[in-house]
Design brief:
alpha/beta, 12 helices, TIM Barrel, 2 domains, binds pyridoxal-5'-phosphate, eight-stranded parallel beta barrel, 24% strand
Length: 423
């Protein structure tokens, strides 16, 4: 259920009018619903009840400390892609012992940091990375827990920029090279082989490619066991999509039920087969529809070919349309009987690529408020300071209360780290 619904003609976040939020915090502002966040997370957590399973929220989708703290308090682990993200987890009170560290380019410093905090596992993406991690662990006097990210070569049938499980992608170890990579890992004294993982793409509407990937991983786990390399967890990554327009993504409980059914059937078919921990790394499906971007109309600019609705949010605040040509819903905050026209909704940034929505029927005038829907994932976390624009404020709503969880960035903060050369 959406937690951003109209009441008496005014869109609310839970029980709070978005007009009030704009008044108090200004625009552009990301507004999150605590109830929506928890509902989405619990759809994973409840489906894992009674199972040896771990939900590691892929925090690159939205790494605000308030979001992390809330999820950590409900038992979430985290999927990290940088040392900075680990420091955020710690600052939010999350447990490094429930963190998986993904990514193709981990630096030595990041590895050493993660080792010093005893993270759950490194999701290693190449053989050179295995060598580097073995070395860093030796220097630290530790044994690094590792999983290999295997590229199952399945087509996630999603946008090419967010498909990650095909041979042509930079991610993971090729399926055909996985056995050799595991043998190499098992022979390194400062590595402990723990698991296997994959992540085939994002905004998947159907779980068939994920189940196909699961079958491939299961086959590998069996072949490794034959060689005496016994894995303790199997991590299916993230990727479940959300509704932006009229998509109908698979329901999370249905997907997880199918995963566990396959796992159970597989383990039952093994002679003395032991249970295996199952991990998930959802990002978008937890935060995506739990947030909107609240923005105000600066100007209406009618034209011969197009009408432009120029708002105070821009591509630097919300990259998805410019970067992926993503379609995002736009709605008026206050319902009115203004005349409807078709507009391109664009920002103030000096790029033709700076658009948020194209050819939308809107009833708007200057100074009206709009929301961009489903902006909770890959919104603020991808925001930049292009055009020396401070990033938006972030507000978390709980019932009829609003909490400022990130201040609007002040322009002076943007050049505080810069200095000029001496004369
Ligand atoms: C981005 C990412 C995820 C999360 O993907 P979503 O589509 O947001 O669920 C999970 N795992 C890894 C390794 C990722 O890079």
């Amino acid at each position: 259920m959406s937690h951003f619904l109209p009441k008496k003609g005014v869109l609310h976040a839970e029980d709070l009018a978005l007009t009030d939020i704009a008044e108090r915090f200004g625009t552009p502002t990301y507004v999150y619903s605590k109830a929506a966040l928890l509902e989405n997370f619990m759809s994973y957590a409840n489906s894992c009840k009674g199972r040896d399973a771990l939900v590691c929220y892929a925090m690159k989708a939205n790494s605000n400390l308030a979001v992390l703290k809330l999820l950590a308090a409900h038992g979430a682990g985290f999927d990290l892609v940088s040392g900075g993200e680990l420091l955020r987890v710690i600052a939010a009170g999350g447990d490094p012992g429930k963190c998986l560290f993904s990514g193709v380019g981990k630096s030595r410093a990041e590895m050493a940091l993660a080792l010093s905090h005893d993270i759950l596992c490194f999701n290693v993406e190449s053989i050179p990375e295995l060598h580097r991690l073995n070395e860093v662990a030796r220097e630290a006097g530790k044994v690094a827990p590792v999983s290999l990210r295997v590229n199952p070569n399945v087509d996630a049938k999603t946008h090419p920029y967010i498909a990650t499980g095909l041979k042509a992608n930079k991610f993971g170890v090729a399926f055909d090279d996985a056995l050799a990579a595991y043998r190499a890992a098992a022979a390194m004294p400062h590595l402990k082989v723990l698991g296997i993982d994959c992540h085939i793409g994002s905004q998947l509407l159907d779980d068939a490619p994920l189940l196909e990937a699961l079958d491939k991983l299961i086959g590998l786990v069996d072949r490794l066991a034959d060689e005496g390399i016994v894995l303790h967890h199997l991590d299916l990554g993230g990727g479940i999509g959300i509704t932006y327009d009229n998509e109908s993504p698979v329901a999370v409980p249905d997907y997880l039920a199918r995963v566990f059914a396959r796992i159970d059937a597989w383990r039952a078919s093994q002679h003395g087969g032991k249970p295996i921990k199952v991990a998930f790394e959802p990002g978008r499906s937890i935060v995506g529809n739990a947030g909107v971007l609240l923005t105000r109309v600066e100007y209406l600019k009618p034209g011969e070919e197009k009408n432009f609705c120029i708002v105070d949010a821009a591509m630097n605040d919300l990259m998805r349309p410019a970067m992926y040509e993503a379609w995002m819903g736009v709605e008026e905050v206050v319902q009115s009987d203004r005349p409807a026209s078709v507009y391109d909704v664009v920002g103030p940034v000096c790029e033709s690529g700076d658009w948020l929505a194209r050819e939308r029927q809107l009833k708007v005038a200057a100074n009206d408020l709009l929301i961009i829907r489903s902006a909770g994932a890959y919104g603020m976390s991808m925001a930049s300071n292009y055009n020396s624009r401070g990033r938006p404020a972030e507000v978390m709503v709980d019932g009829d209360r609003a909490y400022l969880v990130r201040q609007r960035e002040k322009p002076e903060a943007l050049f505080a780290l810069e200095s000029v050369m001496p004369d």
